[in-house]
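Hey Z.,

So I finally got round to the fe (ii) ion thing we talked about over coffee. Here's the setup:
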Amino acid sequence: MVFRKGEKLAEDLYSNSGVLLLRKGTFLTERLAAILNKYEVILDPQLDGRRIATEAPGIFHDLLYENIYHEMEELQHIIQVKTTLCDAEVESMERNFRKLYKEVFATRTSILELMEHFSADEYLFKHCIHVGLIAANIGKILKLHPEKQSLLAQMGLFHDIGKFTIDPQILNKPGRLTDEEFALIKKHPEAGYRLLEKTSLDPMILKGVLMHHERLDGSGYPDGRKTIPFLVRILSVADTFDAICSNRAYRRRQPVFFAIDELMADADAGRLDREIVLPFANFLMENYRKQPITLRNGVKGSIIRIHPLHPNQPVLKVEGYPVLNLMEQKLTLFQIANPY
Ligand SMILES: [Fe+2]
Ligand SMILES: [Fe+2]
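And the result:
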């Protein structure tokens, strides 16, 4: 069946795992109709004729993402007229995000795949969602308590809320920012903190908003502080990673191997926490262990060993060559692998 913009949904819509996706009577926006038309939606006689979407979790992610996206737009409108928010104004975005978070974790969706999935959408909204999912994933890699993982997810969702106060023309400017524009952008942690300080959100979420651009060597902003809570340090790693791997107005997204090099450089320079960067970089590299890697000269290779302290310099088996130990060669995988 075809869904049209402007129509209302005639029945409740469920995922094939039985989770309610959209309520009967939901108004179909253009984006919502497009999502529904992308998937096969059928009447299931076994479910008393309720409609189900047959390709969950793809549709589940798309719809939840769409809901959060929509609520972020609403929040952006509110923020244009208000400098502080109340609980009711952030609740529904948070609720939908929690559903997405649960679904992503329950279905073990790979973060890298998810980032692919959403790559065409508007940067800031997508970035907040990704940073939440990545930060929670790092919490999981570090074996933190599930409550802490879920807190990390929320910290990511809210971390850049202060950017909603900035003129989108500046945020999405394709060229170089002037000093004044950059100074304005650097105010987003404090603006975000002020927006949320009257809500009853966990205090750590507010710390994340305020301190995610602080760096352990004191080179960050707004205060140049060197003492940063552990969960906020995780948030900073997730934030840096997603910013590098996303398309921005002024540059194309960079490959994951490049992002790993950057994180390692930040850890070596004492800006980001090494105890967080290393396990995360190892986890990311493990994803590539079973995949063939094409080198820049077109030759195929594969990772045979990852050095825990130097995950961006693995040992490779390369077609027609002896084993290549990148650490001995003082090379990183990004320097020799085909970037995409
Ligand atoms: Fe930020
Ligand atoms: Fe960010």
